[in-house]
Amino acid sequence: MPLLSIFRKKTAQGCDYRIDRSHIKVGIPKFLNVWSTHRFWIGFLKALGIPAKNIVFSSDTSEEQYREFGKGRIGMDSCYPVKALAGHIGELLTTKKLDILLVPMIYSLPSFLKGHVMDTLSCTRVPMSVENIKAGFLKEGNEFEKHGVKFLNPFVSFAEPHLLPKQLYESLKEALDVTYDEVERAVREGLEELKRFDQKMRKKTREILEWCAQNNRPCILILARPYHMDPGIGHEIDAEFQSLGYPVVWGQYLPTDEDLMDWLFGADVEAGIIKSPFDISDVWTSSYSSNTNEIIWGAKFASRFPWITAVVRLSSYECGMDQPTYTPTQKIVEASGTLYFKFGDLDETKPSGSVKIRVETIDYYVKKYSPRIIERKLKRLEGRRVPGGFGE
User: Fold this and answer.
1) Residue 130 shares a structural domain with residue 89
2) What angle do CA 266, 267, 272 make, to 5 degrees?
3) By C-alpha distance, which of 43, 51, 57 is closest to 24?
4) Is 33 in a helix, a strand, or coil?
């Protein structure tokens, strides 16, 4: 019997049936690529009749979460952001009264670079980690059944949105008693929700960059994977810079407005070096990984934008996908005279003392060199039409 058969109720006419899903509670681990797709899942589930208050995310990653809820559930040696999933699943399973635990296996990601790169795949460990860690909750008995929770792990390809309805329908049809048409509509709603959120974030980033231009203030760009926004993964290094008064922006949400792209990349397009402002083939030929592609593009943006005077690169320990990008990213940034700093091999431990010392050192260099960096970059852009908000 489908899980939701108890939620069937008659319409006013008393003949046809519909599903009332307002009582269903869905838990989603706040891990890895859920950080860049969470608005899709909220929009998708709301469109299926599950109210926002019943969509529950796990808390931020922490050592305590991992030790208390994830210990003994890992069957592989991997980077900490992957292993941390066990703690997120365990927390939701044991502290929230859920009907469904939704842990998507995200194969490919939505990206503003789609169409300009070869593909936008996620790291292969990301989708496979779900099955591996799920097994950790089954080895000594089915923990999901014990808690009365249905575990759903749909395999999804955001780079091919036409596949999403079929992928999600196959995974959810019994647990949510949905029709294909319902799922298809919900996917559209989810993608629109994600698009609106993305546009809002890029607009806000542009406002910050315009403020920097109008006040001639340096800005720090964080180049990392979206899940480094998680305080337990990125250790709030961005907040350390904000506490010193620096505007901080993330590469995932840099503005992509046409006027700004023409100002920064127009000369290279006209010279035939690149085909479009979003073309990274001049510096990176293996453009298959979404996060990697966007980090490389962010480095190109930073090398051109005058008021981004420092780039801070974050990466987790054992990240094989990131390692080949370290040197290219550094070379792109430093070739323009922009400052480049890297916090690599981040794991579950937070060395607060050494982080603060490094932040203070970076602060010294940013204060000392920013005026000449801004001046040099502006000189390179002379003669090009300045977008509104960035100059006269």
Assistant:
1) yes
2) 100
3) 51
4) coil
pLDDT tens series, the chain, 392 aa: 344 443 444 333 332 335 899 999 999 999 999 999 999 999 999 999 999 999 999 999 998 998 899 877 876 677 889 999 999 999 999 999 999 999 999 999 999 999 899 999 998 888 888 998 999 999 889 999 999 999 999 999 999 999 999 999 999 999 999 999 999 999 999 999 999 999 999 999 999 999 999 999 999 999 999 999 999 999 999 999 999 999 999 999 999 999 999 999 999 999 999 999 999 999 999 999 999 999 999 999 999 999 999 999 999 877 877 888 899 999 999 999 999 999 988 888 877 888 999 999 999 999 999 999 999 999 999 999 999 999 86
- Domain containing residue 81: CATH number: 3.40.50
Do 179 and 304 fall into the same domain?
no
Q: Cα(387)–Cα(384) distance, rounded to whole angstroms? A: 9
Residue after which a domain boundary falls, among 163, 195, 227: 195
Are 187 and 164 in contact by the 8 Å Cβ rule? The answer is: yes
177 and 212 together in one domain: no
- Crossing angle between the packed helical segments 290-304 and 258-270, to the nearest 10 degrees: 80
pTM exceeds 0.90: yes
In sequence order, which residues have a C-beta less than 8 Å from that of residue 285 and are 6 or more positions away? none
- Residue 330: domain span: 201-380
Do both 143 and 71 map to the same domain? Answer: yes
The last residue of one of the domains, among 195, 225, 247, is 195
Q: Are residues 139 and 272 in the same domain?
A: no
Query: Alpha carbon of 98 to those of 11, 40, 55: distances in Å?
Result: 27, 20, 10
Q: How far is residue 353's CA from residue 305's CA, in Å, rounded to a whole number?
A: 32
Strand, helix or coil for residue 72: coil
Instruction: Say how many residues make up the chain.
Output: 392
Write out the DSSP string of 175-219: TTT--HHHHHHHHHHHHHHHHHHHHHHHHHHHHHHHHHHHHT--E
Q: Are residue 138 and residue 222 in the same domain, yes or no?
A: no
Report which residue type is found at 209.
L
186 in Cβ contact with 41 (< 8 Å): no
Same domain, 238 and 338: yes
Lookup: tokens for 279: 């073309």
